[in-house]
């Protein structure tokens, strides 16, 4: 495909800017629908007159509907948007970025979605969809899937769009609860993924920020002990990659520990451990659920993170396990390739 695209760029270079513009319009209508021309123009930083002209083309092709509520995408438009995605990715050189990043990190696979999640909220949806496709591919019958919490994992749950024909898939929260938003709790996300895959799920009724003493007592509970045993035997683990400073705030760590993390150049947190850029442990906290040893044993692992500010965190975590898969965005990938 790459050679064909290069030939097309030489012969009909004027087609590609138009194609990418119309794809972006179609994609954003899909994500924002129903949406008015003014809101879409503001989102894409394009004049309303241009939006009107391009939408008329898409409407005449049966890809978009326009009514008093705003613009919506048709079923045919959804198919075209999905089928165009790989071509647009190739046109923008995303495949080359994936290969370069995979070689730099030395891991088994890298998937890159265009854009920057820090600047475009819809890139988070693309990260979720890309990860969801991996889950649907890797989760065979009788697979136990572990999932962590957070906004990125919530997007992954939403990215799963159809029930699987595979049997007895079990989804479990890989860690205890963290924070106050129920939508981003691992329990909630596990239940939603199970519902979308037509699988089953387990719940872990425990916070991930308990004191060591309280946690030891809690682990004696038979139900929690049973769920923890299941968590530690997952076949597929999907987790968000977090910055050390962000996770320290979420866990409300004491000031002296936060200062220690800064002095130790901690850049990432995973499974209760804080790492520097080289992947060395600089601090450890007691956590409930999957731990670092479990992480190393899981046959299939998918780490997900986007945005330039996650570049160092991605470097740290991918140094821990070379068999893992990374799903990231163009901004983080470019940052890693150019700055590290």
From TrEMBL:
Short name of one Pfam family: CggR_N
Start and end residues of each Sugar-binding domain: 96-338
UniProt key word Iron-sulfur: no
Transmembrane segments: none
Keywords recorded for this protein, A-Z: DNA-binding, Transcription, Transcription regulation
Keyword Metal-binding applies: no
Domain CggR N-terminal DNA binding, first and last residues per copy: 18-88
Name of this protein: Sugar-binding transcriptional regulator
Natural source organism: Alkaliphilus flagellatus
